[in-house]
Amino acid sequence: MTMFSTARQLVGRPVVPLLAAVTVLLAACNQVGTSSITFWDVIWSMVAFFFWFLAIWIFISLFSDIFRRNDLSGAAKAGWLLLLIILPFLGALIYIAMRPKVTAQDVEMMTRMEAGAKAAAAVSPADQIAKLQELKAAGAISDAEFESLKQKAMSS
């Protein structure tokens, strides 16, 4: 087997381009810490910013989830917050692993959402026109408003 055929087989594997990219990245970052700013310094800064932003967003989400849950007592909420502050990343992993997939509060919210969707789907254009006629008879809307709202109800 020649050297070119071996190289051709390696390029088909996804690991080799990744290793080549890492090598180029490391070679290009050899000026980090100098007074000049290179393209790779900017890229590295963007990657670092992305991960800091991601970490902050995770902690904000966890804090809001802890405060929103009504199945936790005040002491349990304080304990989780204390754990997240003292051991941030380990505490976040423990909280995510220990949190139940579906709580009673989640089931209640899903039930309310389904009931609202059914109620919204149950309103027909005929019901809307009947309500508009009641409003027109009561004097709450004018004839022109009635006709425009009636056309809107019939088109939907």
Order of helices and strands: HHHHHHHH
Number of strands: 0
User: Which class do the helix and strand fractions yield?
Assistant: mainly alpha
How would a textbook summarize the main sheet?
none
Radius of gyration: 30 Å
Q: In one word, what is the shape?
A: elongated
Distance between the termini: 70 Å
Helix content: over 70%
Number of contiguous helices:
8
Strand portion: under 5%
Question: Can you tell me about this structure?
Answer:
- With 156 residues, this protein is mainly α.
- Among the domains are: 1-31; 37-102, no CATH class.
- 79% of the residues lie in helices and 0% in strands.
- It has eight helices and no strands.
- The protein has helices at residues 3-11, 15-28, 39-68, 74-86, 88-98, 104-122, 125-138, 143-155.
- Helix 3 packs antiparallel against helix 4 (74-86), helix 4 packs across helix 5 and helix 7 packs antiparallel against helix 8.
- The longest helix has 30 residues, at 39-68.
- It is elongated, with a radius of gyration of 30 Å.
Q: Tags for this entry?
A:
single chain; 156 residues; mainly alpha; elongated
Strand and helix map with partners:
Blueprint: H1 3-11, H2 15-28, H3 39-68, H4 74-86, H5 88-98, H6 104-122, H7 125-138, H8 143-155
Helix pairs in contact: 3-4, 4-5, 7-8
What's a concise summary of this model?
The protein has 156 residues and is an all-alpha fold. The protein contains 8 helices and no strands.
